[in-house]
């Protein structure tokens, strides 16, 4: 994949990096350091940022969901655009180094890679020079006493001439794709062929030397076995053996070692290696503003590298220091500190320690920050705390925590809203906190705001939480009149039937309340929305829709309104598209009730089952004793098999609630 990197320090340049999804950010930075070396700016220290998020060296391109042809920002670590490594060292000072010469280590790794690639370019250049000698050897081989040796010499030469890769340090491998992809194979094959050819040359030279030794060349007469041709052959084969040995040695060095080193191998190891945590924490605690900013960034990088570093940071008191830095006046320092905390708190044991030192209140305060990125990081920290421990949830809702979450739900980004919705859902699974949320108006308003989100996951979390709160207090849900319009408008914004089911369950609470039921009937979109809900092949959702309409048939006034808005057509649609027999019977019976001339008596103080029994008795007198049995059993089955939104109470356990939602 291609990545385009822009920087204000180089306003007229856009750097292009060829990367793989599993490459670390450190390797991408290594590619850029090589480019900066060519520009004479290898001392330029920078970070990478994508979609407002700073990229940490230990993570991969895929981890940050960076796509092909993405544009990444190169951000200098100092406000001065020409800030360099030596400048950073002068800021930090010798007494508070950020980690045993980290800058020099990276620079040495860069220069080491440069030397390796320079050597690769030189070795390939020398090898191609030897190929000219091989060509001369190929031509001169036909003049030797063993003239046929020129054929295998020519084959080796042709193989090397056509398949040898071409490389320059500034451009990398160039030429044919096959030569680049099979460069290791070429080195091995040529190395073996050249050694065989060298062996043959040595053997033929030995035969010629034996001939001269036996002949003796008396009086220096160059005739017979001591002819000029024999002497030429000895010199030829000896020179050919030396040349083949040199070219074979070059190929073995390239194939076994040099070609295995890629851009970033040395630099990546230095960028993600373990720093001196004790010195970093000392700088973060006592340093100046810029020093603290850099130290917070380094701690975030270390925390992302592995669990060992996390426990080392906590053991050295890093949790308290980062908690303090999260309230710094400098936004960059705050962001780095919260990033580090988010990494540390992936370990449940560290979460407990963080709650003990009062860190949750700090994160809750950061939800009010004007920086959306900071709010998102703080919400992520709180989500990790509430999702891994039941005991820590109380700390999140204390000290105006629910109000702060509501503010983030209203003003946060889409990603932040999704995280906040997840937090509220986790909190609602705890009985005590659910009761507290149901007694307040703020959480309900926040959940309504989250239901307006365009993100399906945010909507799902918010609707699930509202369903749990409805179990705790249906009056609290029925007081949220603006929620009706949102629930009825859901089919126009999504085709997710799981969301339909959640919305239908909540609408059932409005239908069971006389006041809100009338308000529900006044909605212009009621019929269309219920029709779309009823057209699904989910039998549970169809039963929920049928029961919503049944609640409207219990009162004479409501029944007349139901007739006026043509809810009979909804029941007809459900009956025609019933997912099972029970749904069909429910819809059919309700159609009979809706179209009947006499009205079902109002029974406000009776349960649904008792109302059905009264209704059945009355109909039995007119149509026979068994006419309503199917419908009554259908509606009773919905009563006897409650989901999380149809039955239950505040005594329901968290596990039962989760099962009901799922």
From TrEMBL:
Coiled coil (residue ranges): none
Sequence ranges of Low complexity compositional bias: 624-636, 643-654
Spans traversing the lipid bilayer: 129-149, 155-178, 185-206, 234-257
The keyword Transmembrane is annotated on this UniProt entry: yes
Top-level taxon: Eukaryota
ARM repeats: 358-396
Region (Disordered), start-end ranges: 617-662
Stretches assigned to the Ubiquitin-like domain: 3-75
Keyword Nuclease: no
Xref: Pfam families: ubiquitin
Keyword terms, alphabetized: Membrane, Transmembrane, Transmembrane helix
Protein name as catalogued: Uncharacterized protein LOC106181671
Source species taxonomy: Eukaryota, Metazoa, Spiralia, Lophotrochozoa, Brachiopoda
Encoding gene per record: LOC106181671
């Amino acid at each position: 994949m291609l990545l385009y990197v822009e920087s204000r320090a180089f306003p007229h340049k856009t750097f292009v990096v060829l990367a793989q999804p599993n490459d670390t950010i450190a390797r991408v930075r290594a590619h850029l350091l090589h480019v900066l070396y060519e520009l004479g700016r290898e001392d330029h220290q920078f970070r990478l940022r994508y979609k407002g998020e700073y990229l940490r060296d230990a993570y991969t391109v895929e981890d940050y969901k960076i796509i092909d042809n993405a544009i990444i920002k190169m951000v200098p670590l100092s406000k001065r655009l020409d800030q360099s490594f030596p400048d950073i060292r002068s800021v930090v000072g010798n007494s508070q180094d950020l980690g045993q010469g980290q800058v020099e280590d990276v620079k040495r790794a860069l220069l080491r890679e440069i030397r390796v690639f320079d050597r690769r370019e030189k070795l390939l250049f020398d090898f191609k020079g030897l190929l000219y000698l091989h060509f001369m050897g190929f031509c001169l081989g036909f003049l030797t006493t063993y003239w046929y040796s020129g054929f295998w010499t020519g084959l080796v030469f042709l193989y090397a001439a056509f398949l040898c890769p071409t490389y320059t340090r500034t451009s990398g491998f160039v030429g044919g794709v096959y030569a680049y992809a099979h460069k290791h194979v070429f080195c091995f094959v040529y190395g073996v062929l050249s050694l065989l050819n060298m062996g043959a040359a040595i053997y033929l030279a030995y035969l010629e030397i034996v001939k001269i030794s036996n002949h003796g060349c008396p009086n220096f007469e160059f005739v017979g076995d001591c002819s000029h041709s024999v002497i030429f052959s000895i010199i030829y084969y000896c020179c050919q053996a030396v040349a083949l040995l040199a070219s074979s040695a070059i190929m073995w060095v390239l194939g076994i070692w040099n070609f295995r080193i890629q851009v970033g191998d040395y630099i990546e190891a230095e960028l993600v290696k373990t720093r001196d945590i004790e010195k970093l924490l000392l700088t973060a605690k006592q340093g100046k503003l810029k020093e603290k900013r850099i130290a917070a960034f380094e701690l975030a990088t270390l925390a992302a590298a592995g669990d060992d570093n996390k426990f080392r940071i906590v053991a050295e008191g890093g949790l308290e220091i980062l908690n303090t830095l999260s309230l710094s006046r400098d936004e960059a320092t705050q962001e780095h500190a919260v990033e580090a905390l988010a990494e540390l708190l992936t370990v449940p044991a560290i979460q407990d320690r963080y709650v003990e030192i009062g860190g949750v209140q700090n994160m809750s305060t950061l939800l009010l920050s004007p920086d959306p990125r900071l709010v998102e990081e703080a919400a992520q920290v709180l989500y990790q705390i509430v999702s891994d421990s039941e005991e820590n949830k109380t700390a999140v809702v204390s000290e105006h925590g629910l109000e702060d979450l509501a503010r983030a739900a209203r003003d946060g980004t889409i990603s932040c809203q999704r995280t906040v919705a997840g937090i509220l859902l986790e909190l609602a699974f705890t009985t005590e906190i659910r009761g507290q949320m149901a007694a307040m108006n703020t959480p309900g308003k926040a959940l309504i705001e989250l239901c307006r989100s365009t993100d399906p996951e945010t909507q799902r979390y918010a609707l699930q939480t509202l369903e749990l709160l409805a179990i705790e207090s249906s009056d609290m849900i029925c007081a949220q009149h603006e929620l009706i319009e949102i629930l009825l408008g859901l089919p126009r914004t999504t085709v997710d039937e799981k969301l339909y089911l959640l919305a239908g369950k909540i609408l059932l609470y409005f239908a069971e309340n006389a006041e809100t039921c009338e308000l529900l009937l006044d909605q212009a979109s009621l019929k269309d929305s219920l029709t779309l809900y009823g057209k699904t092949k989910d039998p549970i959702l169809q039963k929920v829709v049928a029961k919503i309409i049944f609640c409207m048939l219990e009162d004479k006034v409501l029944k007349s309104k139901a007739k006026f808005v043509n809810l009979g057509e909804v029941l007809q649609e459900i009956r025609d598209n019933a997912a099972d027999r029970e749904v069909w019977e429910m819809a059919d019976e309700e159609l009979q009730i809706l179209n009947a001339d006499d009205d079902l008596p109002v029974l406000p103080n009776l349960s649904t089952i008792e109302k059905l029994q009264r209704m059945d008795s009355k109909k039995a007198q007119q149509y026979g004793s068994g006419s309503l049995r199917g419908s009554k059993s259908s509606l009773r089955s919905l009563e006897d098999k409650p989901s999380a939104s149809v039955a239950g109470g505040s005594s329901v356990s968290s596990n039962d609630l989760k099962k009901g939602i799922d």
